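**Backbone geometry record:**
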Amino acid sequence: MQILLVEDNSALSAALSKALQQHGFTVNPVTTGRAALHVLGTEPPDIIVLDIGLPDVDGLFVLRKLRQSSATLPVLLLTARDSTSDKVAGLDAGADDYLAKPFEIDELLARLRVLERRIGTAGSNTIVIGGVSLNISTRTVTVENTEIDLPRKEYMLLKLLMEQAGKVQPRETLETRLYNWGEEIASNAVEVHVHHLRKKLGSDLIKTVRGVGYKINRP
């Protein structure tokens, strides 16, 4: 799951990026509203975490511009403005949720999990396909009721495919969702992760769509 983090406080941005990456998200940070609009026009993320108080344009301006082209891309607003009128303004502009600073990382993660469930095919924190069960809250994976250990990238890839069960995920899309900006990517990185997952989960779960990418069929 790729998050576009729009936050001009460099220390907070770095701390949030690190925490979110540790919890299985791919995070691409920008510090201005103009930079955010550029990214949204070229490489839309899965979720936007958007600070209202930006140095160039107001975060609500970014949100309104986004909603002109996308009515469904989830947006979580971050702001130091905690009045009821500010919250109403953010929600009226098209935000899906609102988090006032300062906040605990656990609360941010909980709200992001709610937005994740709206995006994917899962209706709860647990996705079950065949004998494989993935719990988004605990980041655990079980195969036939036996918990298995997955490195972060393998977990992220499995989660992407299970959330979008029945849909082919192009290799390029998977690379974008798995790796942060500037992170080195081997030419066969996705193939290697799929190979390792098949060894742990069984060879029949992840299907190869030749010349395109991979998918997991709906149960």
